[in-house]
């Protein structure tokens, strides 16, 4: 194999390593953004519905923490178009658990008072048509 071919292979391998490193950076940025979004949503939801956003993010199982977590996952999925998996990850929820959280909130919207509070949050988030 000639020197030119070996140099081309080295450049190709270096390029592949750079692409792989950038993909890792992108995943880390996306995870950081999801955590920041989840914290903001949990704070907003806790303010409106009561509860502690720190407990909701920590996985606490008391009723108010679960409600804050479920609504936050719902809003991340519906208003910010995150997948169930991406919306649930900052709350340490699996994709099926996040899917159930979204479904619980969709079902709870049948209650007029609950739906009114949730619509207020959606207005704050800029999704007037989301219902």
How many individual helices?
Answer: 6
Q: Approximately how much helix is present in the residues?
A: over 70%
What top-tier CATH class of the domain at 38-124 fits best? Mainly Alpha
The name of the CATH superfamily of the domain at 38-124 reads DnaA protein, C-terminal DNA-binding domain
CATH architecture of the domain at 38-124, by name, is: Orthogonal Bundle
CATH topology of the domain at 38-124: Chromosomal Replication Initiator Protein Dnaa, Chain: A
Radius of gyration: 21 Å
SS class: mainly alpha
Arithmetic mean of pLDDT: 89
Low-confidence runs: none
Main sheet record = none
Name the shape in a single word: elongated
Total strands: 0
- First-to-last CA distance: 64 Å
Could you characterize what this model shows?
The chain is mainly α and 131 residues long. It has a domain at 38-124: Chromosomal Replication Initiator Protein Dnaa, Chain: A (Orthogonal Bundle). Helix content is 77%, strand content 0%. The chain has helices spanning 3-49, 53-58, 63-78, 84-88, 95-108, 112-124. The radius of gyration is 21 Å and the shape is elongated.
């Amino acid at each position: 194999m000639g020197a030119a071919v070996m140099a081309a292979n080295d450049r190709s391998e270096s390029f592949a390593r750079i692409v792989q490193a950038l993909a890792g950076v992108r995943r880390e940025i996306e995870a950081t953004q999801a955590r920041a979004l989840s914290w903001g949503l949990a704070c907003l939801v806790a303010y409106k519905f009561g509860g502690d956003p720190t407990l909701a993010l920590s996985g606490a199982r008391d009723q108010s923490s679960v409600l804050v977590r479920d609504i936050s996952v719902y809003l991340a999925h519906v208003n910010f178009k995150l997948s169930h998996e991406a919306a649930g990850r900052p709350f340490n929820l699996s994709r099926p658990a996040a899917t159930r959280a979204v479904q619980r909130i969709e079902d709870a919207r049948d209650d007029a008072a609950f739906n009114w509070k949730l619509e207020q949050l959606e207005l704050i988030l800029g999704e007037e048509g989301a219902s």
